[in-house]
Amino acid sequence: MTLKITSEIDIVKAKTSKIKEVDFENIAFGNIFTDHMLVCDFKDGAWEKPSIKPYEPFMIDPSAKVFHYGQAIFEGMKAYRDDNDQVWLFRPDQNLERFNKSAVRMAMPEITEDIFIDGLKAIVELDKDWVKKGLGNTLYIRPFMIAIGSGVIAQPSTQYRFMIILSPARAYYSGEVKVIIAEHYSRAANGGIGAAKAAGNYSSQFYPQKLAQEKGFQQIIWTDDATHTKLEEAGTMNVFFRFNDTICTAPASERILDGVTRKSLIAIAKRDGIKVEERSVLVSELVEGAKNGSLKEIFGAGTAAVVSPIVGFQYQEHYYELPKLENSIALELKDKLTKIQYNLAEDTFGWMVKI
Ligand code: COI
């Protein structure tokens, strides 16, 4: 599939590029940004013409609602360069759809397909030298929307800013990932904003995550808020559990993000005859499985981390180490997904979109 540009975008190019200052072999996730950013404001009930300009700070009123009420949403996506120097996006339609679901939940205006998809195409095209060749090199794409209307009355803003910024990225996690199962804190509740990619969903994890890190764990496996008995997500990722030869993951719900990596792994697994169950997985099953050996793997799945194998988990002060496997389904699925993304394997699903 090739993207067609339909909307007009004003483009002001950066006078000089920062690209030569970047050591692409040693980049920490999310710290470096490319030369340009896309900006599009919503005012008087309509989206204005988008523009692409040099990446730089901008001014907004200190009373803007984003600062006081956290009216902010985002997406995470990636661009990949194949061996023939073609640059690709992965399922951008899915990010657009989820972005607009998040917008509705946060009482923000939906973005148009023209602005989101054409904007992506135009900015990635402009900064495509930042998408490096080779497995593991990606350009992380961060579309987001903030409420820029001023006034501290607790009501939705009438003015918004949609932006796309780009960051060259390699691995999200370095080293082993150990997790602790949430017994007190929660990420989401029924009727809440767990299914939205809202900024507050992430900042509310920072404190429990800090406590977990102080105990030597990189991430928390979130459980349901009501009973803390059902396993729901791992940190900022969806989570899969492998019991014998079946992989299980909680169904997307109003508490659980409908992850693009999650659903892509499920589709690949089903295509290739790997048994998948989308169902609630209980903490008790996990503990039992760790004790009787049927629990083989736990892995997180998300755009930033792709597939992140988890080496062990702690529950009720007891640490359970997972076996080291030769035939990891997590790594098999990761390999199959990344080969599609880098155009090294046939894209039987029609997921990839050419820039
Ligand atoms: C992603 O995987 O894209 C996410 O949204 C996680 C983010 C916190 C880096």
What number of domains? 2
Radius of gyration, taken over Cα atoms and rounded to an integer in Å? 21 Å
Assign the CATH class of the largest domain.
Alpha Beta
CATH superfamily of the largest domain: D-amino Acid Aminotransferase, subunit A, domain 2
Annotation field: number of helices: 7
Order of helices and strands: EEEEHEEEHHEEEHEEEEHEEHEEEHE
**CATH fold category name of the largest domain:** D-amino Acid Aminotransferase, Chain A, domain 2
**Main β-sheet description:** 10 strands, mixed
Describe the structure.
By secondary structure, the protein is of the alpha+beta class. The protein folds into 2 domains: 10-170, D-amino Acid Aminotransferase, Chain A, domain 1 (2-Layer Sandwich), CATH 3.30.470; 178-341, D-amino Acid Aminotransferase, subunit A, domain 2 (D-amino Acid Aminotransferase, Chain A, domain 2, Alpha-Beta Barrel), CATH 3.20.10.10. Helix content is 24%, strand content 30%. It contains 7 helices and 20 strands. The chain has helices spanning 65-69, 92-105, 113-126, 199-214, 260-271, 283-292, 329-341, and strands at 10-11, 36-43, 46-47, 51-54, 72-74, 77-81, 87-90, 138-147, 160-169, 177-181, 219-223, 230-234, 237-243, 246-249, 275-278, 281-282, 295-302, 306-315, 318-321, 352-354. Strands 1, 2, 3, 4, 5, 6, 7, 8, 9 and 20 form a 10-stranded mixed sheet that branches. The protein has a 6-stranded mixed barrel with strand order 10-11-12-13-17-18, surrounded by 4 helices. Helix 5 packs across helix 7 (329-341). The termini are close together. The mean pLDDT is 95. Bound molecules: 2-OXO-4-methylpentanoic acid.
